[in-house]
Amino acid sequence: MADTLREIERKYEADAPAAAASLPDLSRVAGVAAVTDEGPYKLDAVYYDTADRRLAAAGITLRRRTGGSDEGWHLKLPVAPGVRDEIRAPLSPDVPRALAALVRARVRRAALVPLVRIRSRRTVSRLLDAQGTLLAEASADRVRADRLGDGGRSARWTEFEVELGSGTDPAFLDTVEKRLRKEGLRPSDAPSKLARALQETGGKKKKKETADHEPATAGDHVLAYIRQQTDAVLAYDTAVRRDAEDSVHQMRVATRRLRSAFRTYGDVLDRRATDPLGAELKWLAEELGADRDREVVTARLKDGLAGLPGTLVLGPVRARLRIHAAGRARGSRKRVLALLDGERYLALLDALAGLLADPPLRKAAAHPAPEVLAGAVLHDYERLAGRVEKALGTGPGPVRDTALHEARKAAKRARYAAEAATPALGKPAKRFASRMKDVQTLLGDHQDSVMTRTALRALAVRAHAAGESTFTLGLLYGREEQCAARDERELPEVWRKASRKRYRAGLRP
């Protein structure tokens, strides 16, 4: 079973290579009451990656380390600058399956091979407060890195780390840094030992996937957005495997943004190449969302029931809702994990990587971004306007519910289009996206009400068949009808505000 620790640390090096080989005195750092010294001890780590360094490109490190108090396998996932989640597993000859699974979306079918061996002689100072609580650990490492293969190059250096203790205010690192700077140390240019080792042992550099220049053409901007959303899918893949809260939903959103971008920006990326990808993204979103509707409906029903006086709750309604919710949870995680390990999903990730490596650009991709992207956003707006007009002109009932749902999907696409164009179009696109979100939110609430009423009717049928009272379920159904009617009354005004000409005029270059 893998264990996870949140690691908050900063790395330093001497201004001059020979200026420092050991930690400076940190006993006078504000808040430090005592400093205890440990070590020295030896650490020996072998870092694993694919031959083309896919993990390193994502800021991920995977190592097998002996020596020290935490020997074993360590997988480090970036969270924010200077913050990583370290997932540990016991020592074993091969990469543990639990850790390999967490990077499968990055690695896919490529082998994880030993890339670099890093040996360190480490001394550690523990910084304690007046109560003896650990504030931080400061360490000095004399490092030797050996490239495994690629000619067997080696490098040596000394580096310093300060790792925050559990529960310590991160601002404490700023206090320590002031002292270190006074002693001639400065923040390291390399984010990790592996990054520095790869650089200093002189191996082949991985070709950058992003341009060195600021995006200028329509193709630059669209590909930057496609790359951003692809990276989001990969990051949320790991989060889903770790069972992080809301990760399945966020991964689904990223797949929808990708599919929407392919459809919106068909003048930039050839749809003959992207339509098959769009179909696979639709499949993935549907699979990830298989339980989402039930989850939304369950939460809505629970909220509705909580708002009723106890005198109006007749029969075993709460038990019915628990059964409904259990139907969602049963086997859900196992099914999702099987999906992420499946060949179809891995093939989709391969195809996305292939598209970014060799994008199917059309003629318009070379044109200035503002004119191309603004035209695409306005085209999606016109599509939305037609659907809203159709929905408003349809009488109440199931047909109108369907029309409003179609308008909701169009509002989402227009919003995503504007968000993708924001780096090129600036504040006008951001404001336009916000207005489209208003429409999407209102219509989303309406659709949630439609789904909830469908669920309530099914629950009522089962309750009636069991001889239970359906009074409360009927009451909740009536309230959902009122919510939907309210949304329909508000739509004309929300749409009037969102469709103001000034929001569209600002998009035009």
Provide the residue-averaged pLDDT. 91
C-alpha Rg (nearest Å):
28 Å
Main pleated-sheet profile: 8 strands, antiparallel, barrel
Can you give the helix content as a percent range? 40-55%
Instruction: Tell me how many strands there are.
Output: 9
| Widest sheet, order of strands | 1-5-4-3-2-6-7-8
Task: Describe the structure in your own words.
The chain has 509 residues and is an alpha+beta fold. 53% of the residues lie in helices and 18% in strands. An eight-stranded antiparallel beta barrel has the order 1-5-4-3-2-6-7-8. It is globular, with a radius of gyration of 28 Å.
Blueprint (SSEs and pairs):
Elements: E1 3-14, E2 34-49, H1 54-57, E3 61-66, E4 72-80, E5 83-89, H2 97-102, H3 104-107, E6 113-128, E7 134-147, E8 154-164, H4 171-182, E9 185-187, H5 193-200, H6 218-241, H7 247-264, H8 271-288, H9 292-306, H10 317-329, H11 332-340, H12 343-357, H13 369-392, H14 398-425, H15 427-465, H16 471-498, H17 501-505
Antiparallel strand pairs: 1-5, 1-8, 1-9, 2-3, 2-6, 3-4, 4-5, 6-7, 7-8
Helix pairs in contact: 6-7, 6-12, 6-13, 7-8, 7-14, 8-12, 9-10, 9-15, 13-14, 14-15, 15-16
